[in-house]
Q: What sequence folds into this?
């Protein structure tokens, strides 16, 4: 593809993403942050973000798909165990989870 | 409660550098190398990370470009993959407590938002004095944006080559981080929304893969909202 088309794609995608952000800014000016609609939108955000994360772990489209589901779930359990063991330090959970996934993938496959 | 310009900036930098900056650096390395494979220039890849600033949309852009789709279809797919920014901005902006900020400033705040900043700020804001939240957010968000741009550039040039199992661990770190961050979220409706979201995404993904996250948000969020509102624990008086 010529460079002009690729630039058009990049800038088009940036603009198309910005539309959602701008729409959010416009919508939020018209709603009451204490009201039911705001609470509902907040719940929608949490559900979307949690769903996205859950999908990345359970049904990954990345190279992670080559690692068995059992290993992925075991690594999540190890991560949470380390997180609570080390007084809710995110670093502890993330390092333990990432390393245990790498180790299990290397040894078990 | 954290307050004061100095301590809030220090906290934001520490919170960013303790993990999210590295996670984004490595995630965007992956994007950079994919962008190169799809025929984009290094400058284009970095601009994409800086201006799109939403990985699912960036990945959709790269994937569809490498399979030779038309420009309109690519832009549409990217937009759809990043539609979550609408509810995210709406739920986030009031937390910033910006008062009477002008429209361009609000748009700039919205442009800086990413899933990382959203999740971390939702977790940290209750511990930060409202007047200092915006400074925390801008410091945190621009630090990770910088890390993302660097990661994109380095990944594009393939400067750091890691063993395959290490790469798997690094890919895994991103969802793991969000899962841990969000496990600390308070509020019954929010917690139920996340549980319903996880359940919904499996069904939505198998039925309507292109719209799975939108369906997940609306269905899971509505169920969580309703549960939080109408279902009270028996012993809560």
A:
């Amino acid at each position: 593809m010529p460079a002009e088309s690729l630039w058009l794609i990049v800038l088009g995608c940036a603009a198309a993403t910005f539309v959602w952000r701008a729409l959010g800014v416009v919508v939020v000016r018209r709603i009451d942050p204490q009201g039911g609609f705001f609470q509902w939108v907040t719940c929608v955000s949490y559900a979307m973000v949690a769903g996205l994360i859950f999908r990345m772990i359970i049904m990954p489209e990345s190279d992670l798909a080559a690692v068995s589901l059992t290993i992925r779930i075991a690594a999540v359990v190890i991560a949470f165990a380390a997180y609570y063991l080390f007084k809710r330090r995110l670093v502890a959970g993330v390092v333990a989870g990432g390393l245990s996934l790498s180790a299990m993938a290397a040894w078990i496959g | 409660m954290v307050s004061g310009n100095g301590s809030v900036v220090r906290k934001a930098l520490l919170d960013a550098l303790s993990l999210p900056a590295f996670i984004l650096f490595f995630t965007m390395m992956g994007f950079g190398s994919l962008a190169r494979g799809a025929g984009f220039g290094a400058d284009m890849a970095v601009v994409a990370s800086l201006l799109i600033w939403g990985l699912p949309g960036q990945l959709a852009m790269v994937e569809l470009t490498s399979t030779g789709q038309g420009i309109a279809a690519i832009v549409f797919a990217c937009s759809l993959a990043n539609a979550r920014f609408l509810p995210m901005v709406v739920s986030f902006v009031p937390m910033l407590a910006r008062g009477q900020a002008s429209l361009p400033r609000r748009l700039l705040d919205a442009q800086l938002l990413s899933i990382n900043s959203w999740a971390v700020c939702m977790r940290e804001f209750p511990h930060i004095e409202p007047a200092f939240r915006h400074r925390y957010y801008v410091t945190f968000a621009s630090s990770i944006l910088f890390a993302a741009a660097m990661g994109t550039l380095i990944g594009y040039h393939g400067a750091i080559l890691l063993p395959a199992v290490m790469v798997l661990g690094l890919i895994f770190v991103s969802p793991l981080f969000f899962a841990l961050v969000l496990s600390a979220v308070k509020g019954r409706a929010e917690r139920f929304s996340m549980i319903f979201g996880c359940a919904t995404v499996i069904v939505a993904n198998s039925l309507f893969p292109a719209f799975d996250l939108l369906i997940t948000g609306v269905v899971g969020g509505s169920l969580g909202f309703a549960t939080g509102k109408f279902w009270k624990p028996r012993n809560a008086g």
Notes: The CA atoms of residues 19 and 25 of chain A lie 10 Å apart. The mean pLDDT of chain A is 93. Chain A touches chain B through 75 residues (CB under 8 Å). Chain A has four helices and no strands.
